[in-house]
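Example S7 (structure tokens).
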């Protein structure tokens, strides 16, 4: 089946998120002190973390690896019994549902980051808008029809 413009947008948005999170999360894993990204440890004073290792792992896995794997799933639409168990939209294929999940994971990540850092920057706004864009594009009727389960 031919991909639609909406599907291509969804894949590009997830690719942008995934690559950025792989880079940012990877940098925090390699340098838990935050030095590699110029992030001082005092930023974590209001958080439960003493360094950036755990946030880096979460960023790398949930917002880096997952969106990148999801791109493959959106294109190939593979069957997955495990993913289907986590699919709360029973009329939709799991890759579409996980695209919606990723947007909510990103919104939660940004909200927690703002609480823990006790600050808001332009990057928080940018990534919040990215989460909304991913959700908006996933909900487009032309995208939904491509990921509806066959009856």
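Recovered sequence:
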């Amino acid at each position: 089946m031919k991909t639609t413009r909406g599907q291509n947008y969804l894949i590009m948005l997830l690719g942008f998120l995934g690559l950025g999170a792989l880079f940012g999360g990877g940098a925090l894993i390699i340098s838990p002190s935050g030095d590699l990204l110029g992030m001082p440890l005092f930023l974590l004073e209001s958080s439960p973390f003493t360094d950036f290792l755990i946030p880096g792992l979460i960023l790398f896995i949930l917002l880096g690896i997952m969106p990148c794997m999801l791109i493959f799933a959106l294109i190939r639409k593979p069957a997955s019994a495990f993913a289907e168990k986590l699919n709360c939209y029973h009329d939709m294929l799991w890759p579409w549902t996980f695209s919606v999940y990723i947007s909510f994971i990103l919104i939660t990540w940004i909200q927690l980051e703002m609480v823990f850092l006790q600050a808001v920057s332009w990057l928080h706004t940018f990534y919040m808008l990215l989460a909304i864009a991913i959700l908006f594009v996933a909900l487009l009727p032309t995208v939904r029809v491509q990921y509806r389960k066959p009856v």
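Notes on this example. The chain has a mean pLDDT of 96.
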